[in-house]
Amino acid sequence: MSRPGLFEHLAFHSTAAAPLDMPRESVAEIAFAGRSNAGKSSAINALANRNRLAFVSKMPGRTQHINFFSLGGSRFIVDLPGYGYAKVPREVKAYWESLLEGYLTTREQLRGLVLVMDARHPLMPLDVQMLRWFVPSGKPVHALLTKADKLGRQEAAAQLRKVEKTLLNHYGGSAQLFSALSRSGLEQAEAVAHEWLGDEWRGDGPAGGG
Ligand code: GDP
Q1: Which of 42, 66, 147, 150 to mutate to test the pocket of ligand 1 (most atoms within 8 A of CB)?
Q2: What is the DSSP string of 128-142?
Q3: Which domain holds residue 66?
Q4: Is residue 6 situated within a structural domain?
Q5: For 123-145, how does the pLDDT look when each residue is reduced to its tens digit (9 = 90+)?
């Protein structure tokens, strides 16, 4: 399978605990959001064809922050903090809520949101919260239903239809099945990223030495 390689030079760039920390040179970015354990890091790693890249976001002190990965050409993949931990203190929850909401509602460079959800448990309340914050921006959403390998083919197709229907009726946006484990859905996800970021900048050269 030939892959366009949009993510091939993906490299960790920086961690932001507040809007002022976010890279000012960014021209365009795509954000990945999802419940903790949904498979967001695995999805980013699979797209980048790297094993541990996005696990940077799990290092102590970084899990509640926004992590920027450079694609080159001042374009970024933005790993938003995972949500839905049961035992998060109130202040921490309030902090990430304001960070996430602020980012999703005001970040001009943001071109689209990839909402990573376990294909078996999509559209949980906090996922819907992300959609409610983001959709009024008028920017596109793409639901990445991951761990699809854990479902039979028919079950997976039914989950996809269910999510597509809800998105269509309430939020707009597209959806797909994905599996980091069986590396399925990579091309489709990359095509979405291509569409959102365009291609004209890709002669600019790699970001992180590649
Ligand atoms: P994150 O917290 O959203 O970044 O989730 P991770 O990427 O760390 O994944 C959480 C758990 O789900 C890990 O044990 C992964 O190995 C597993 N996982 C992630 N993606 C897949 C997948 O596509 N298929 C299967 N079977 N397991 C997955």
Answers
A1: 42
A2: HHHHHHHGGG---EE
A3: 11-201
A4: no
A5: 999 999 999 999 999 999 999 99
